[in-house]
Amino acid sequence: xxxxxxxxxxxxxxxxxxxxxxxxxxxxxxxxxxxxxxxxxxxxxxxxxxxxxxxxxxxxxxxxxxxxxxxxxxxxxxxxxxxxxxxxxxxxxxxxxxxxxxxxxxxxxxxxxxxxxxxxxxxxxxxxxxxxxxxxxxxxxxxxxxxxxxxxxxxxxxxxxxxxxxxxxxxxxxxxxxxxxxxxxxxxxxxxxxxxxxxxxxxxxxxxxxxxxxxxxxxxxxxxxxxxxxxxxxxxxxxxxxxxxxxxxxxxxxxxxxxxxxxxxxxxxxxxxxxxxxxxxxxxxxxxxxxxxxxxxxxxxxxxxxxxxxxxxxxxxxx
Length: 319
Prior knowledge:
CATH class of the largest domain: Alpha Beta
Strand content: 25-35%
Strand order of the largest sheet: 2-4-3-10-7-9-8-5
Number of domains: 4
Number of strands: 10
Distance between the termini: 29 Å
CATH topology of the largest domain: Alpha-Beta Plaits
Shape: globular
CATH architecture of the largest domain: 2-Layer Sandwich
Helix content: 25-40%
């Protein structure tokens, strides 16, 4: 995680709830000068994004693909392939139990089946093990959606589609810049922006931390001992919630695993020497199988590494 001073953290918190908040409004609420807010915002190492309702955009299917390689795919070859595939929203090289991770959005099963066949055929000589899971539900966290897949959507029409794509790239883009890009008047641009942000497509205009100063870990987990889960978990609740700020995504998946989790740590030693040791009994007794990998070079997309903000967000049983 990235750590800021108290004022910067408060500004960041305001922007996570609404990334389009004017500096003057933030300043008034936090009782400081607008110029101070402006300067602090400039120093934040963040991306301004939209959290979108994927299904409302006609993107009903989400998948995580994780691949173990028997030999490295030439970097430019995999990069070129990923760049050409609009349905790939996030891709990264990883180190651990798998070597390549993809997050894919499709309009239906057929589109995914065609993509998977093409992917496996294209890189057959490099693939040792190919795994994929279907995302049933995200408990918290999200993967930002690319402008390319928004522009392909048939569920929203111009010019709102183009404006949504611009805001997905930078949700703090000014009305003036949007009007200039689309060659429309500023009042008309404002009308469409206000309409879009209140529409069924947008859950939130928000801000996310960039992952470059964090150690990001992906984990897939398969339950084995559901009957005694509460009993095993109860003595470790304190340890579990100690790492609440390190959980940045958790989702229920279907396939060879039951859950996908993403963690963010200041450095890997905290993960291996702290998290793993404190929760060793839970991990060993409650999960039949667990694989993890450290995120390396990001090939496409953005990661939302904002932490879980409450105990209720974590998908753990009530004790």
